[in-house]
Each structure stands twice: as structure tokens, then as C-alpha cells.
């Protein structure tokens, strides 16, 4: 192993989440779905429905830090974790970990942008769904590996405008050959 590679390996082992996050920024999204490190406890980190990330009661003000933490986010069942190859820390997610803040609505595809910079096109692998909560629609799009984005209000209104009535009267969207009802 080269001296540089050795330092990088030691940095991940000793630097934990922060080192993995820095490494993710250099190489693209890490393969968190392949990592199954031991559970190391809970981190006082909460992701709120408005897209804010709160650590120890204080919002994380650096968007780059939020994006980096989002890159090592993993879902297992109903729980969410920040993971590296050597550790796993539990965090709280109030609704969905991401917020879809914009959409490019084309004739054959709907492509969303999230608050953490993910770009995802709705389709069979990334469905749009709408749940009813307290009498109000809660729209989501699947982003990656079990992680969803809540679609913000302005974007949802644009989707409703672009939708067409289906045979049963429900509003439908089409993207990459799939159909999505806008009513839950």
C-alpha cells in the first residue's frame, strides 16, 4: 500500500464519520449499501421536514457539511444511520431525510433536485407517492437506497398543474414509462 493510501486508510479509521465524509467528496457517493459496521451509539442529529439538519440543538449552517453527511446516510428498516466502513451512528429523521426543492417536468420524464444536491428522475426505480396525513397530501419521491425526499409545496403544485386526469378521474403523472397517482 502506498504511503498516501495508508494515510487515507488510517484517516478513515481514526477520523470516523468526518474522514469518510471528506473522502466521499473526493470520490463521489460512497457505497454505504455495502457497509455493515458495528453500531456505535446515537448521535444528537435530527433531520426535520423542512430539510434542516440540527446537531446538538443547533442548525448545521454549512450546506457542504449537510451534503457530505447526506452522502453517508443509510436506512435500515425504520432507522437511519450515518455510516463509515468502521462505525455506524443512529440519527433521528422526523419525516423524510431529504426535501425535493425543484423539478424539471418534461414530456417523458420528471427530474427532481433535492436540498442536498441529489438529482433523481422519477420512474420505476424512483417512484412518486402521495400519503394522506391529517387530511393533507404528503408527496414523496424515492431518491436512493430506501431514502426518500418530501416534495416541497411549490414543486407539488407544479406537479399537480402538469398532471392529467386518468380513467378513474385521479390525477396522474408519467415519467420514464411509469404512472404515478397524485392522490393518496
From TrEMBL:
InterPro entries: DUF1285, DUF1285_beta_roll_sf, DUF1285_C, DUF1285_N. Residues 30-96, 97-182 form the DUF1285 domain. This is Proteophosphoglycan.
